[in-house]
Design a protein that fits this description.
Function: Involved in cellular auxin homeostasis by regulating auxin metabolism. Regulates intracellular auxin accumulation at the endoplasmic reticulum and thus auxin availability for nuclear auxin signaling.
Largest sheet: none
Radius of gyration: 26 Å
Subcellular location: Endoplasmic reticulum membrane
Number of strands: 0
Distance between the termini: 9 Å
Number of helices: 17
Pfam families: Mem_trans (PF03547)
Order of helices and strands: HHHHHHHHHHHHHHHHH
Structural class: mainly alpha
CATH architecture of the largest domain: Up-down Bundle
GO biological process, one term: auxin-activated signaling pathway
Number of domains: 2
Organism: Cinchona calisaya
Strand content: under 5%
């Protein structure tokens, strides 16, 4: 199969995503105002609490079984590697660009977390249904492709809400602490200025009276002893409370809870017989979840398009940070991914399924996860900067994702 044919197969799904995102941007324009900021927030809540969980649980329940889960053991490890490698490269990018504290977590998260969810559920089925696809018959390709995409979606959601969530959370906490320290320094400086003015005005000659006045008029002033005690307590608190800063409760976010439910139904035969199949007693629940989950993909794409419109207005993101994130996501990670997957195939960790290998390779070439924008909204920090990063990374992904998909299909075929 020629590279031109592979390029056409890879470009169609990307064009579909771009068309839906473009419609979302159009509906979010001020003179249209169908998907204004408040409407996008409400849709985002519906997706977060209802549509995404339904999508994850329904697809996992009907595609992940005891027979194929043993063949997919390398996928969670591969996704974890993308998060670890991306986080390390993002940390290096922060060091080289000297990113401000309030953006460090956002930069690391953008480099670590790829869009393993809805984008996969659009790309993989579309590639399977394209004429000339190198992945075999359409039906089997679609069945296995949905299993791979659903597992990627579930594992990616767990990693996102446990790793990236806490990275952004800790970064925002440190940013708030830095702001508070600056405010305290300003208050202390103004207090000293006020002290000098009072002393000059009162023209106090008695030094003891001056000292007494300092203590009474400036209760916020700290002695060196007190300052040392506070510094030691802060250091001790930071060391002792490191694991307390890791908020493990987010593992029970709606998407991860839905993944657990989907795994339970798919892997437990009695539950599968009860829910899956036309003759199952409770198949109406599964059918309803599939119906809800089907609305998640276009809804998220519309919201993404509306949010990307904010990036056109610009923000304080330095050009070096944008170029660094683009280089990490579309150059360094895909090259590393090729080495990792080829090494895993050589060692026998990955079975000889071209579609499975393609999905593993694609984990390294995706744009940043859309839920990073949701995380920044939760902490109220870096929202406009996140919009700019997503705008430019997704604009570039229309070309890079097509090229990498073409090369990956040629590589595994």
């Amino acid at each position: 199969m020629g590279l031109l044919d592979l390029f056409l197969v890879a470009s169609v799904p990307v064009v579909k995503v771009l068309l839906i995102c473009g419609l979302g941007s159009f509906l979010a324009l001020d003179h249209i105002d169908v998907m204004g900021e408040s409407a996008r927030k409400q849709l985002n809540n519906v997706v977060f609490f209802v549509l995404n969980p339904a999508l994850i649980s329904s697809n996992l329940a009907q595609t992940v079984t005891l027979e194929n889960i043993t063949l997919l053991w390398f996928m969670p490890l591969n996704i974890l590697l993308t998060f670890i490698l991306g986080s390390f490269l993002g940390w290096l990018l922060n060091k080289f660009t000297k990113a401000p504290q309030n953006l460090k977590g956002l930069v690391i998260g953008s480099c670590a977390a790829g869009n393993l969810g809805n984008l996969f559920l659009i790309l993989i089925p579309a590639m399977c249904h394209e004429k000339g696809s190198p992945f075999g018959a359409q039906d089997s390709c679609h069945t296995y492709g949905m299993a791979y995409a659903s597992l990627s979606l579930a594992i990616g959601a767990i990693y996102l809400w446990t790793i990236v969530y806490n990275i952004v959370r800790i970064s925002s906490i440190k940013s708030d602490e830095a702001v508070n320290v600056n405010d305290e320094n300003c208050d202390e400086a103004s207090s000293k200025s006020l002290q000098e003015q009072l002393i000059n005005k009162l023209d106090l000659e008695d030094t003891s009276a001056v000292d007494h006045g300092n203590e009474s008029l400036l209760p916020c002033a700290k002695t060196d002893k007190q300052g040392k005690v506070l510094i030691s307590e802060k250091i001790k608190e930071q060391i002792c409370s490191f694991f307390r800063n890791i908020n493990l409760k987010v593992i029970f976010a709606p998407s991860t809870t839905a993944a657990i439910v989907g795994f339970f139904i798919g892997l437990v035969p009695p539950a599968q017989k009860l829910m899956i199949g036309a003759n199952a007693p409770l198949h109406v629940i599964q059918d309803s979840a599939l119906l809800l989950g089907g609305a998640a993909i276009p809804t998220v794409a519309l919201v993404v398009g509306g949010n990307l419109l904010r990036g056109l207005r610009g923000s304080g993101v330095h050009i070096s940070i944008l170029l660094g994130i683009i280089a990490i996501r579309y150059l360094f990670l895909p090259v590393i991914g090729i080495l990792v997957i080829k090494g895993a195939v050589h060692l026998g960790f990955v079975h000889a399924d071209p579609l499975y290998q393609f999905v593993l390779l694609l984990h390294y070439a995706l744009p940043p996860a859309m839920n990073i924008g949701t995380i920044t909204q939760l902490f109220g920090s870096g929202q406009s900067e996140c919009s700019v990063i997503l705008l430019w990374t997704y604009s570039v992904s229309s070309v890079s994702l097509t090229l990498w998909s073409t090369y990956f299909m040629w590589l595994v075929a």
